[in-house]
Design brief:
The protein has 238 residues and is of the alpha/beta class. The chain has a single domain (3-235), classed as Rossmann fold (3-Layer(aba) Sandwich), CATH 3.40.50.720. It has 9 helices and 7 strands. It has helices spanning 12-23, 35-44, 59-73, 94-104, 106-122, 143-166, 196-208, 220-229, 232-235, and strands at residues 3-7, 27-32, 49-53, 78-81, 125-130, 170-177, 213-216. α5 runs parallel beside α6. The N and C termini lie far apart (48 Å). Bound molecules: NADP nicotinamide-adenine-dinucleotide phosphate (NAP). NADP nicotinamide-adenine-dinucleotide phosphate binds at residues 8-14, 32-34, 55-57, 82-86, 103, 130, 132, 177, 179-180, 182-185. The site of NADP nicotinamide-adenine-dinucleotide phosphate (NAP) has 28 residues, from α1.
């Protein structure tokens, strides 16, 4: 039986992914701040889901919480880091920019590093980060959000290179969603919005296939290509 931890499992992509993992036979440790939502999720799958309530920004306690959860689920094969935040921020309100940085950068670094060290000691494992297509270019609507996602993408690239160079079977998967129908994807500019369950099924497949990078849904690979190729003078006008 495989064991996974999903961080940011109270809602959206993380919650949908927990359900897919359980359906595929995993025992899952699910985390987030909203205890009631975690308890509801656990009640739906007795004996398959174990829960831990904590705030990823409280970095002094995160590793303790994760280690306890690993003991509870009886081992660890997969970590999926889905917790994240970002807001439209036309006024560049520093509090909103700071929230994105505090949630998406430091905790990401801490948890990715912890998972890598755990799998290095164990001799194998799989870490998947839910980044975003937003990390491919700067974004005028939420500059900090795009920048934090670029950080995550580069961090994962670094970990992948580290595992490869060390000859270790540690798989690093960078999941880059376009728009998924969750609390985070609100606004008038959204398109190709995927239901969370469809996104979760595609994320599961990418993990099973040990993909280094996956666009969710798959057609977002096209947008990614356009984003990468679009000249600066056009990108800055759209
Ligand atoms: N939806 C999209 O269109 C989209 C597109 C690209 C990338 N993404 C990425 O997908 C990931 C998941 O987002 P989502 O769309 O599923 O939105 P969501 O429903 O808002 O889920 C965010 C999750 O992160 C957790 N979280 C946020 N801040 C936290 C904190 N300080 N401590 C612990 N957990 C925290 C939330 O749990 P609590 O609030 O209970 O703590 C929740 O479980 C994010 O990293 C986001 O950047 C989403």
């Amino acid at each position: 039986m495989k064991r996974a931890i999903v961080i940011g499992a109270t809602s959206g992509i993380g919650r949908a992914l927990v359900k897919v993992l359980v359906a595929k036979g995993y025992v899952v440790g699910a985390t987030g701040r909203r205890a009631k939502l975690l308890a509801e999720l656990q009640a739906e799958h007795p004996g398959k889901i174990f829960i831990s309530t904590f705030d990823v920004t409280e970095v002094a306690t995160v590793v303790k919480k994760l280690s306890a959860l690993v003991r509870e689920i009886g081992g660890l094969d997969l970590v999926v880091l889905s917790s994240g935040t970002g807001h439209m921020n036309p006024a560049l309100d520093f509090a909103l920019e700071q929230e994105a940085i505090d949630t998406n950068v430091l905790p990401f670094t801490l948890i990715a590093g912890w998972a890598y060290a755990f799998f290095e000691k164990q001799g194998a494992g799989h870490f998947a980060g839910i980044t975003s297509i937003a990390g491919l270019r700067g974004g005028r609507h939420a500059p900090a959000y795009n920048a934090t996602k670029a950080f995550q993408i580069r961090y994962l690239e670094g970990l992948r290179a580290k595992a490869k160079k060390a000859g270790l079977p540690i798989v690093i998967t960078d999941i880059r969603p376009g728009f998924v129908d969750t609390a985070m994807a609100k606004g008038d500019d959204v398109f190709w919005v995927a239901p969370a369950r469809k996104a979760a099924v595609q994320i599961y497949r990418a993990i099973e296939n040990k993909k280094p990078v996956a666009y969710i849904t798959r057609r977002w690979a096209l947008i990614a290509l356009v984003m990468r190729l679009l000249p600066k003078f056009i990108y800055e006008r759209i």
